[in-house]
Amino acid sequence: MEKKSYSNFFIVIGYLLILRVVLMVTVGISVFNLGILFDLVLMTFWIAAFGFFMKKKRYQKPYYILVIIIATIFIVGDSVYFDYFETISARSSFAGLKWLTEGTTLEYSIQIPLVAYLITPLLIGVIYLIISNKKKDVFKIKDFGYFSIAFLIQVILFSVWGSFDFDTRIDYYRSDAYLFETMHDRSLFSEKYGYYNYHILDLTRIRTSPDYDEFYTEVDDYFESKDEHIENDYSDRYSGYNVVTILGETLETRFIDPILTPNLYLMQNEGLSFDNYFTTVFQQGATCNSEFMGITGMSAITTNDWSNNICDSYSENTFTYALPEQLESIGYDTYYFHSGHEWFYNRETIIPQYGFNTVAFQEDLYDRGYTDFSERYDTNMLDFIDEYVDYSNPVYINLLTYSMHGAYNQIEFDKYANRVEAAYPDNNLDSELINYMEKLVEFDNMLGMIMADLELHGELDNTLFVIYPDHFPYMMNTNTYTEYIGVEKDSHEMMRQDLIIYASGMTGEVVSKAGSTIDVAPTILNMIDSSLEFKYFLGTDLFSNGNNYILFSDLTISNGETYLYLNEDILGNDVHYAILENALEIEITALEIQKKLLIIDYFKMKEEE
């Protein structure tokens, strides 16, 4: 009878635990939590289970080596991913691998993370130990039974989460049941239930099929119960005007300066500036999600039960009441232009679903002979307008820019160094800040060229501009960025920006009503034609009466001054607690409606009635 031996098994378990600790420490996630116990049980069971049935060394050792290599890849990949998105990767993140194969991620300036340097010698050493060990592991059935009992206890514990009843939806969302069932906070899930456990569940979890009729009725009832939109002082004020919306890639409005960005400064100070406005960033597709929210007036989503990236998951959905669809219905020619690739975030599929008549990307300009076009220079976006736009009817033009995208080490923008120096003489600015400002000059120059082109066509005095960011510069060193703008790291104040609306003849007004990206579409529609359909927006016309709230992707809610966190902590005036608590329940209901609407393609079902 073979003597029991677990040497390689213990080496693998030890290595995986070290990997986990190194990742948690380097990204700032708590190591000493129950998650490490869940991971230990999971690893011992499954690694021992396969090892138990592999009786020969030539199968067992390659299996062990494969396990540690796969785990190492995940650890290194998550370290890189966390650097940019401050969360752990998910199954939906793997779609981004196609961007690597296309060679379009150079702007991310991806570098080998510290984790790789720390664990590479260890990985080599562990592989050597496994290969050089003359003995194979021999598991006894009794010992394997212990692993099985431990794993069974974990399965029972996990199954309990689905059996709880909660008095309110907020109680559920504040519970560990919500965290476990949706894995909405990947880092917290890894702390509480295990990092390896998170990835295995994320890769293998089966989504239940929805009841389409039930979801449809629930969504329909929700919209039918909404209050009617009420006209206000800005209703129809710009009826018949051209509309130019610009989603500024990584636009940070706190950098606007009369010398650095004279056109933005003009619009911000002579137009409408909304200073209680937030870009509620939904990561893993932040630009796509912000674009979706700004055009449709609906929210993105915030759970691993569905991909966080709207464009990857719902690109073929119908959006009957999106802003371009409604403007097209009253005679507008609608245009969408982006200097990036058409396949990125499935934009060639989803953008026409919003109702744009003309959709063009860099591929289209190359096909039309614009061989010198470069996506990095926003000023080149005038090529789209020259090539496609006809002012015979009112136009709605939506531009998604590119220049301010990171990384902030691109020397081709040094041609604007003198502008930065003029705005900040004798500056001691960090090199990333300087490069960002140079990119911002390129964006501002584009605005000036668009205004000049509209004036040339006699359309400038009949055009409404709407400019808003997609997200803060998350690709910049976080400490450098937050110290410069004067907010705390990881604070929701990082997302406070200005929404800028401008037309010739405005005299300058600051609007302090709380708002966010989902409020852009209803606000524009009210200014153009208040008789159109508002009930299918989850956002609010920012000129309307009544309170409005900002719901962030982590389910923090704010009135623009006070923040109520999901865990019931409050930052600001405690007197607002009850009001924000009630608002949070309302917003959670809307968010659930949003999820069901997307899952069943509600508007398509409605059109087919």
Structure description:
By secondary structure, the chain is α/β, with parallel strands linked by helices. The chain folds into 2 domains: 7-204, no CATH class; 235-607, 3-Layer(aba) Sandwich (Alkaline Phosphatase, subunit A). 47% of the residues lie in helices and 9% in strands. It has 24 helices and 13 strands. Strands 1, 2, 3, 4, 5, 6, 7, 8 and 9 form a 9-stranded mixed beta sheet that branches. The protein has a 4-stranded antiparallel beta sheet with strand order 10-11-12-13, with helices on one face. Helix 1 runs parallel beside helix 3 (57-85) and helix 3 runs antiparallel to helix 5. The radius of gyration is 27 Å and the shape is globular.
Nutshell version of this structure?
This protein has 609 residues and is α/β, with parallel strands linked by helices. Helices cover 47% and strands 9% of the residues.
Give the SSE map.
Layout: H1 7-27, H2 34-53, H3 57-85, H4 97-102, H5 114-132, H6 141-160, H7 169-173, H8 176-182, H9 186-193, H10 195-204, H11 212-224, E1 242-248, H12 262-270, E2 272-278, H13 286-296, H14 310-313, H15 323-329, E3 333-338, H16 347-353, E4 358-360, H17 362-367, H18 382-388, E5 395-400, H19 417-423, H20 431-456, E6 463-469, H21 478-485, E7 496-502, E8 509-511, E9 515-516, H22 520-528, E10 550-551, E11 557-558, E12 563-564, E13 570-571, H23 577-600, H24 602-607
Parallel strand pairs: 1-5, 1-6, 2-8, 2-9, 3-4, 3-5
Antiparallel strand pairs: 2-7, 6-7, 10-11, 11-12, 12-13
